[in-house]
Amino acid sequence: MRTPPRLPDRVQRRTPRPPVALALLAALLVAPLSGPAMSQAAQKDAKPKEEKVPTGEKEVPALFTSETPLALTFRTNLRQLRRDKEDEAPWRWAAVIYQDSSGKSVEVPMRARTRGIWRLKHCDFPPVRFNFAAKDTKGTLFEGVDKPKLVNFCKDTDQYEQYVLQEAQLYRAYRLLTPASHRVRVARMSYVDSASGKRDVERYAIMLEDPDQMANRNLAKITEIKGAGPADLEPKEFALAYMFLYLIGNLDFSFSGLHNTELLTTTDGRVLPVVYDFDYSGAVNTTYAVPPPNYNVPNVRTRKFLAPCELAAEFPSAVAALVEKKDAIYALYQDEVGKLLKPNVVRSTMEYFDDFYDQVRTPQDAERNIFRKCIRR
Questions:
Q1: What is the number of structural domains in the chain?
Q2: What is the pLDDT of residues 209-233, one digit of tens each?
Q3: DSSP string, 56-96
Q4: pTM more than 0.85
Q5: Domain endpoint, select from 159, 182, 212
Q6: Burial of 1 from C-beta contacts in 10 A (0-12 / 13-18 / 19+)
Q7: Which of 87, 114, 123, 168 is most deeply buried (CB count within 10 A of its CB)?
């Protein structure tokens, strides 16, 4: 595999811990090593991570049993939360409020803290992670939900809200292809300041499944080790992830660098790739997205196939999976979530997807337009 590209400034780098293959296979057996000394505030919030054997999912949490957009209120000290720009921000008191099927208002207490890298420093409102306690969620919409991420607006404009909805569609499309992906639920989120009681803003957001819960339902655990290559991962899933990233025109990822990717080590020893964070993709086409400088592409709308040639035997099945799900993917843009997108956004996205499907119209087309452009080591 070629040397991974230089990652954007917003990427947090980790120190590699070779040898990769051995570490991946041992991931389910060894506890994580202690990290560097933490600040007193971080120590206060930190809890030893209990090593659990994946059990699978007994029941789908109510939050993810429907895809109908929710109406939620997020209440916390918004001014304080906006000031939390450090890497390990403290957990703050918060609550999420919704109306149940009878129209009764239900308030679920929780904790929230800022997260992210680029968005944390550049957005008007930072991305957030929620932390629910099981005792507080019992019998509510959030029962069985632990630490979901909130993908919210970056700037309080209609354009940036459309970006959130476009990204939600890509998560939903990926879910059609593989269970090794994050569930999402779109919500119309009202942000209320707990200090003043005033409503700050109301915009659509994405509730993104906790990575550990996603791993558990796949009978796996998150493996946070850099350096994985084609020989380390499940070939079929690896090729499918690369082909999906090509479909949406995403270059802002690295499996070996764990940038916008996760690795799941299953109880039977397989290593599955998971991709996330699609705002830099050509399908979303945000105004702030730029391709990595050493890829020699003019803009994020230009696709580039980055799969290693070692996976060539799996390329046809990856294309076949995308062709099989084409109608289902397109249908996402006509359902309850899709109708929240502006017509010109839907039209542009469909045209972008059409271009991919034109490239794979026949096996010969796919070979000429995509497969031959794989990365050779």
A1: 2
A2: 999 999 999 999 999 888 888 888 9
A3: --SS--GGGS--SPEEEEEEE-HHHHHH--STTPPPEEEEE
A4: yes
A5: 212
A6: middle
A7: 168
